[in-house]
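Q: Got a minute? One more chain.
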Amino acid sequence: MKGKEVRELRKKLGLTQQEFAQLLGVGFTTVNRWENDKSEPRGQALEALEKLSALVEEAESDGDFTLEELRGILKEVESGRLVSALSGSLPKSILGLVAAGGVVGFIAGLSTAFLIRKFTSGKEKDKKGEKE
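A: Always. Here it is, folded:
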């Protein structure tokens, strides 16, 4: 992923470089270096960026969820409020998995959840069409 793509993704998400770095579990300097093409994302950071990019594309094109909803969720993740908010509604074992998976794991799960939602809503539409 090129620096320009990283910067555009961050701006679409409405995050500062510091917030983006915290979300991805890297340092501010790392994000700055990516955006200025001094280095390239690798490993889990690259995987998270690719999943975030796919989620942004989905939000911009399909309408199953909005970019604003995605921004709100990511702000909750970035601030650590998401895990504390979930603590009252999820069993501790599941909450531990969310916390242990970190942001990359959460983004992967979020991406999967949106794909499942899209797939199942498509199936429901097909079933309604068959009944009519």
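A: The chain has a mean pLDDT of 74.
Q: Perfect, thanks.
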